[in-house]
Specification:
alpha/beta, Glutaconate Coenzyme A-transferase, three-stranded antiparallel sheet, 6 helices
Length: 228
């Protein structure tokens, strides 16, 4: 059985200043909302965060940005967050932007124990500066190193008490690969069922990757409302 925390505050108790975090989600889809809020309340700082983007100004990772708790951001998109853009342009935050597919593979490689890989994405651009370039079959590739984290914070729809996870549709995004690449993975879930209730063929993340569970209701805010 995995620890089931009674609160988000308890779940993040061991996350301290200077930690490297992987945070699942794409925009606001599949983000561990309550775990992020607990980090904001705890006021940890100097965090290195690995995530696709920083959400929006008033929700998700944007809340950590607003309170200047993130020292370095490793992602693929600045996008919808004005505060993120402001901090980048003013030099208040260190940012490492990576092509989205490369970011996903760097995380997946970290979880698979692969130290580095070659990819054609970024060759001839600033992405490749200072990195090894090799040619295979007449085409150039850049060497990218795997990513790891002290903690991975992921969001799932359902877990059993052993920690097996099932994600809801596109909320899989970065969550399964991040679950494998963190030294400690904390899963925020909407439902916890008894062990044996999940169909083994439907499990996305096996329990061996998960160290703790938090059951929490999601607000599921809308990132960008479009009306006709």
């Amino acid at each position: 059985m995995k620890p089931i925390y009674s609160s988000a505050k308890e779940a993040v108790a061991n996350i301290n200043d200077g930690a490297t975090l992987m945070v699942g989600g794409f925009g606001l889809v599949g983000i561990p909302e309550q775990l992020i809020l607990a980090l904001v309340e705890k006021e940890v700082k100097d965090l290195t965060v690995i995530s696709n983007n920083c959400g929006i100004d008033e929700w998700g990772l944007g809340l950590l940005l607003k309170k200047k708790q993130i020292k370095k951001m490793i992602g693929s998109y600045v996008g919808e967050n004005k505060e993120f853009e402001r901090q980048v342009l003013s030099g208040e935050i260190e940012v490492e932007l990576t092509p989205q597919g490369t970011l996903a593979e760097k995380i997946r490689a970290g979880g698979a124990g692969i130290p580095a890989f070659y990819t054609p994405a970024g060759v001839g651009t600033t992405v490749a500066e200072g990195k090894e370039i090799r040619a295979f079959n007449g085409k150039e590739y850049v060497l990218e190193e795997a990513l790891h984290a002290d903690f991975s914070l992921v969001k799932a729809q359902t877990a059993d008490r052993f920690g097996n996870l099932i994600y809801n549709k596109t909320a899989q995004n970065f969550n399964p690969m991040m679950a494998a690449a963190g030294k400690v993975t904390l899963a925020e879930v909407e439902e916890i069922v008894e062990t044996g209730d999940l169909d083994p063929a439907m499990i996305h993340t096996p329990n061996i990757y998960v160290q703790g569970l938090l059951q929490a209701e999601a607000e599921k805010r809308i990132e960008r409302l479009t009306t006709q």
